[in-house]
Specification:
The complex is a heterodimer of chains A (about 250) and B (about 160). Chain A is an alpha+beta fold. In chain A, about 30% of the residues lie in helices and about 15% in strands. Chain A starts with 12 loop residues before the first helix and ends in a 6-residue tail after the last helix. Helix content of chain B is about 20%, strand content about 20%. In chain B, α1 runs antiparallel to α2. Chain B is globular, with a radius of gyration of 16 Å. The two termini of chain B are about 25 Å apart. Classes of the chains: A alpha+beta (about 250), B alpha+beta (about 160). Chains A and B meet through loops of A and loops of B.
Chain lengths: ~250, ~160
């Protein structure tokens, strides 16, 4: 019988959203248009339109050893061209952000090839060859994984995911990389992810409303969203994992 | 050491406060004339960018503004989330609550009584202020900061 991944337990809307985001057969809902140039500006690794700096010569020009694995694995476009490895990093607010660090790593590992997702407590980084990263970043920003107010693109000084929101509903950012234009109800990035001021503002869309966020979040929150304890199936699963690990270490044989 | 005879309260809001809101609420609170000491708590807003390739550049931040409390100008160094007050006596608490209700408007907030300010000098306080420090300033400002606490003028 062919293996069919279940992606995760739970009967709540949060669990359902988690499964939906992780399942590569389900298309992520596109919510906003962001241009290639804007993605490059937000990440700040190179000037828009500049050639991709390289870390090594293109694979076609290199003498590749006769290796069966190299023949089997098709290199990414960026790897073929010898691009540098670059990154984009996100911070997601506890207040019903559409995605969250552990979820992001699962989503990226299921959906994208040749990337290196890494989760930390309040932020999540994805590393990849530069031109492939730009494609991934464009999807991560343009789809339902991103909310302009509750998700931040932050290379360093990410503090804010666990804090109360500001009066205008934006997540705290010590460097205030993005601001909410109240008249247009539009979030604009004025600094790139490394806090360097941008020459032009990058618009990333309107903040999503509370109702949408509550229905699409992948974070349990007992005060503003769906509480973890309301999902009995999830609680049972987590308790089972905890129990097996406690009793048997890493050999969970009942 | 601060005597514990002065009641202390903390005001917590559902959102982090804009400087304009802090100014409005603080002026209403200070007008009650029953406040001895104030600490505005919240995540820090550094004047310069602290990490990364832009390190050292000025950190332009809307929340880092100078506001006027009484006659005194105060530069906001934090994005205020909690207001700690030490009061002359408990009788002033209803007036503080009324000031908060007027100042915060529709925003949710609550006020709790307890002990929220530093009572004993720590090692760092000792190193900064010495053994005969004014007890009223212990815990009022970050001891490692070059700026001390602000004395608010013109409220009585």
């Amino acid at each position: 019988m062919a293996y069919k991944p279940q992606y995760g337990p739970g009967s709540s809307i949060v669990a359902e959203n988690r499964r939906k985001q992780m399942d590569p057969s389900k298309k992520l809902e596109k919510l906003r248009d962001i241009s290639d140039e804007d993605v490059v500006l937000l990440m700040g690794h190179r000037a828009p339109g500049a050639a991709y700096p390289t870390a090594h010569p293109p694979l076609a020009e290199q003498q590749e050893p006769d290796c069966p694995v190299r023949k089997m694995v098709v290199p990414l476009d960026g790897a073929k061209a010898g691009d540098r490895i670059r990154f984009i990093q996100f911070a997601d607010s506890y207040y019903n952000a559409p995605c969250q660090p552990y979820q992001r790593s699962y989503v990226e590992a299921y959906r994208y090839r040749g990337c290196d997702p890494g989760t930390l407590s309040g932020r999540q980084i994805i590393e990849c060859r530069e031109r492939d990263l730009e494609k991934i970043a464009k999807e991560l920003i343009g789809t339902e994984l991103f909310d302009p107010a509750r998700t931040g693109i932050r290379g360093s000084t990410v503090h804010g995911h666990s804090l109360r929101l500001a009066e205008d509903g934006m997540m705290f950012d010590m460097m205030q990389r993005c601001i909410l234009d109240k008249k247009a109800n539009m979030v604009k990035y004025v600094k790139n992810q490394n806090s360097e001021p941008l020459d032009k503002e990058v618009k990333v869309g309107k903040p999503l409303d509370e109702k949408w966020l509550k229905a699409h979040t992948t974070i349990f929150h007992s005060l503003v969203g769906t509480s973890f304890r309301s999902d009995a199936e999830y609680v049972e699963y987590v308790q089972r994992v905890h129990s097996l690990r406690t009793k048997y270490g890493y050999v969970p044989e009942e | 050491m601060t005597d514990a005879i002065y009641p202390q309260v903390r005001i917590v809001t559902v959102r982090l406060l804009n400087p304009e809101t802090v100014e409005r609420v603080m002026n209403l609170i200070l007008a009650t004339e029953g406040v001895r000491r104030v600490i505005l708590n919240g995540p820090r807003l550094p004047p310069t960018i602290t990490t990364g390739p832009a390190k050292g550049q000025p950190n332009i931040h809307e929340m880092r503004k100078t506001v006027k409390m009484g006659e005194q100008e105060v530069e906001m160094q934090v994005h205020v989330g909690t207001i700690l007050l030490e009061l002359e006596n408990r009788d002033v608490i209803p007036a503080i609550k009324a000031a908060c209700a007027a100042g915060f408007g529709e925003m949710q907030w609550y006020l709790q009584e307890g002990r929220y300010m530093k009572t004993d000098p720590s090692l760092v306080d000792y190193a900064k202020y010495g053994p005969y420090a004014d007890k009223a300033i212990i815990g009022m400002a970050d001891p490692s900061s070059k700026k001390g606490p602000t004395i608010i003028q013109g409220i009585k």
